[in-house]
Batch of 2 targets.
Target 1
Amino acid sequence: MRFTRYGGPEVLSVVEVARPEPSAGQLLVEVVVASLNPAENAIRLGMFASGPAGFPQGMGHDFAGVVAALGPGVRGFAVGDEVVGFAPGAAMADFAVVDAGSAAPKPAGLGFAPAAVVPAAGATAWATVAAVAPEPGETVFVSAASGGVGVLAGQLARLAGARVVGSTSSGHARRLRGLGIEPVEYGRGLETRVRELVPDGPDAFIDTFGRGNVDLAIRLGVSPDRINTITDHAAVQRYGVRAKGNGDALSPTIWAELLDLIAAGRLVVPIEAEYPLDEIARAYTDVATRHGFGKRVVRVRPDPS
Ligand SMILES: NC(=O)c1ccc[n+]([C@@H]2O[C@H](COP(=O)([O-])OP(=O)(O)OC[C@H]3O[C@@H](n4cnc5c(N)ncnc54)[C@H](OP(=O)(O)O)[C@@H]3O)[C@@H](O)[C@H]2O)c1
């Protein structure tokens, strides 16, 4: 999957390229499922570009697949291993090359789709929960609790023993409740509804949506060091709240912890939709709606196991 200029989803196209070769310390992985992340829309639009672009660029970050070849000096992996990995700008492909240190074994029997989202959305959720360190019996609020990061963060906070209240559309309330997260409808009147559910205010606040959620947390009396946002950089400057995210959890050890929770059925990864590679424009258009329950992914090939 490549693009040669910045723009909307229409700039993406599937092209035939030579199979990449793994260098020393790298794995060549046959990709089965690649995750779709909102930031990839922003990257493709050029919103993160700070200088002249090097085109063509690839797409995607996190994926799950099967090791097809090893570069010199790789230890701990073998051809045929099922793995997850993090390959910025290279995951949406038949084959991806990844540093062995940016890959983790996928538990046998775990589907490739839920596994593929672990290195980005999963790790980000892990970092947000670690940042606010919920204690058993505390109440944690999660904004956009039905989103890709939010739905995982809410469940991880529950696993830490907290009561979790999360904002959602009414259409996703029942599914959220089924995951142990108390739904509260976002939009006009949110603050009143939160105060009714949590009269003393939450102990911690995980913001995965921005747009006034950190201001709400401050008004609810949450201490800035118990507020984490992954989107509202202005609020970080304004209030000194925390901003832990994906870059703080790019660790195969953390990914392995999350994969084990998913394989054990203790952490559920809702998959909103799977798309074939040649429907990538529709996939990213759907991601850009910012509505859905859980994650959207691209299926490159059927699960081999
Ligand atoms: N800093 C980092 O390391 C990092 C890492 C990953 C992601 N991010 C960023 O974090 C954000 C969340 O990522 P994501 O993958 O979780 O996004 P996402 O899956 O696209 O989130 C969509 C969710 O937002 C909800 N939503 C829509 N309007 C809302 C509103 N007004 N109030 C509350 N929720 C609303 C939707 O709920 P309904 O469907 O119920 O309407 C939907 O479930 C993105 O901006 C992303 O770029 C940052």
Note: The chain has a mean pLDDT of 97.
Target 2
Amino acid sequence: MKFAQEFKKQLQQEGFPQKWVDSAIPYGQLKKCLKRVTNELQELGLDKDTLAQLAAAQSSASAASESQHGFLYLLDEEPSKTRHLRPRLTVFVHLEDGVAVDATLSPATRDFLGKIASRGSSGSPTFSNASSAEEGAPSDLAAPSQDNFNEKSGRIQAPESVSHFSSVQKIEVPLVFDGEFFDILQTDVSNLDVLQDEEQQRMKRDVIALGQDISKATKPSAGKKAKDDLTKWRDIFELYLDARVFFSTRESDHGARSSAQALKQLQWFQQEVLKRRLVQGLKLKESREAFNRFINVNAVLLQNLKFQEINQIAVRKILKKFDKRTSLGVAKTFPVAVHSQRLLAGSIAKDLCAQVSSEVIATIPQLDDYLCPICFAIAYWPIRLHCEHVFCSRCLVKMQRKGERFCPLCRGDVIMKAGSENFDTAHAEFLKEYFPKEVKEKIRANELERGKEIFGPDYTDRPCCVM
Ligand SMILES: [Zn+2]
Ligand SMILES: [Zn+2]
């Protein structure tokens, strides 16, 4: 299938909002405009083969004489219209007695170049040395306008001074339709950036509201159901983090995922949640609703990613087509010159994923974030050292007994200086509230260990021994 049709079909079938479809890259319109660019170049004798020859001459030339060969096609910023590109084609022509002499060029091209050079050279012709060719400001030599060119066409005017010299001239070729092409493309890319920005703001608000609702519903102080749901949410988010839906942190496939990969990961997550009956296990209506919203946020994010992806492909394809028809090499230069904070920067997934982690996932404290870095059990009783690192009281006591002075995480001289003032009571309350099971287990383990220290290795924590 041709890309134009494929693109249209995807836009229709993916269920994108109409507003998105309307702002998609106007591939068909660009293709028509490209045709006009091609015709324009052909009329000037600068068809794709001629330009390819000039490009080849340029790349084979030595660095010193580079400016004497080929052409330059620059996409500069339009000074009057901010953020718009003004394409400029500059051709370097060898002239002998006012006639273009590059044997590889077709007669029509040489004819054209001769004509345009004669008009441009009326000011100050540049002679056969590369540096002087470089000095001449392109605008001085540029053909002033298309009209002017037509007026004078058919007349080869070789100023006397040039006739005895072989010279190299830098000539700006007057083109109209390439400007139109890049105008359409840049305008559309900018509009898509705005659209994506709006979408992102909207989703941000949804994500923040969702985070607040989950946090409210699962506050352990709200009762038994909230406590039970908190455990379920913890399992749900643990699975979600494992799924790495939009980003992989694994070394083998590090980085952003394609929408197809993200879809697969999201499906895996949903299947696992179903398999483990986690949603059915949610006791509060608010929790179940919040889960649906969470899935919805992911689905919208996925849709945004997909839309961005197919538009990026459309831009790549049309630039490739442009180069194929003109040999002007814009596939490399346009992505550098274009102003796009979003569409071509591809940051939407990254920004929103960070938002989801900080606003939603973080509302459910994960055990991993509250472990003692020495014994890897929950850091209870928590001791916050002067360096702000938190350890469990048992591990601190053991370090002090061994006379260790330095924090194993930051090497700060803080261990022997720690005392009862380092008990973090507020943090202890938080741990008891959010991880009651783990705290109970840790207290039991601590007591058993202490009992063995006092009463010997046969000590057990049978119910009669422990209060
Ligand atoms: Zn510990
Ligand atoms: Zn430390």
Note: Residues 232 and 278 are 6 Å apart (CA to CA).
